Amino acid sequence: MSGGDAKKLVRSPSGLRMVPEHRAARSPFGLDEPPWVPDKECPRCMQCDTKFDFITRKHHCRRCGKCFCDKCCSKKVPLPRMCFVDPVRQCAECALVSQKETEFYDKQLKVLMNGATFFVTLGTSDKSELMVCRLSNNQRYLVLDGDSHYEIEITQISTVQILTEGFTPGGGNTRAIGMILQYKVPGSEEVMQMKFTAGEDFSCNKKLSASWLAAMHKVSKAAKSETRLK
């Protein structure tokens, strides 16, 4: 795992951003700033078709780069996927997407970084190891610590299957008790598999484990999404 996690403050036409000094250290959930539609190519609002003049000014959405009037692009919403320090102007459609992502950043990522404890089984082994599992601070790696140590790059994860119990034919609540994780080894096409199981001894941490597993499932989807988090 790269140790170059230092960040720097940069100014762009869209606002101040706190970005990693090295691009290789950027979060897999990050988005690049979009190119702005040139002013000369947008004489009218791209949402309501209002003509721009000295009174009706044009504004660019920081998420999609399109050109809008103030009415159609008035909301300033946090956009952590582009590392903006302050909320930035976004069109109504993009603002809704960014607002939905707020929960992901405020809750799921924090749950994963705090970590949870599981019995981890590698491949087809019949032996499991008690390990603390957490997301690295730069959000790039799943870190497993026990007697052994593993670091799995989030972008190399191909499948996350959540294991549940409690389902009954007549319906009923289920809870996550583990997961099967498949990932590629960097530099090869080999696919590895790990099984995570919440220990029965940790009844007080069952809720924590279930929350961590649910967050891991969302993160695996988010890392594959280029535009929005599910």
UniProtKB/TrEMBL annotation:
This is ZFY21 protein. Pfam families: FYVE (PF01363), ZFYVE21_C (PF16696). GO terms for molecular function: zinc ion binding. Residues 39-94 form the FYVE-type domain. The keyword Zinc-finger applies. PANTHER family: ARRESTIN DOMAIN-CONTAINING PROTEIN D, ZINC FINGER FYVE DOMAIN-CONTAINING PROTEIN 21. CDD domains: FYVE_ZF21 (cd15727). It comes from Chaetorhynchus papuensis.
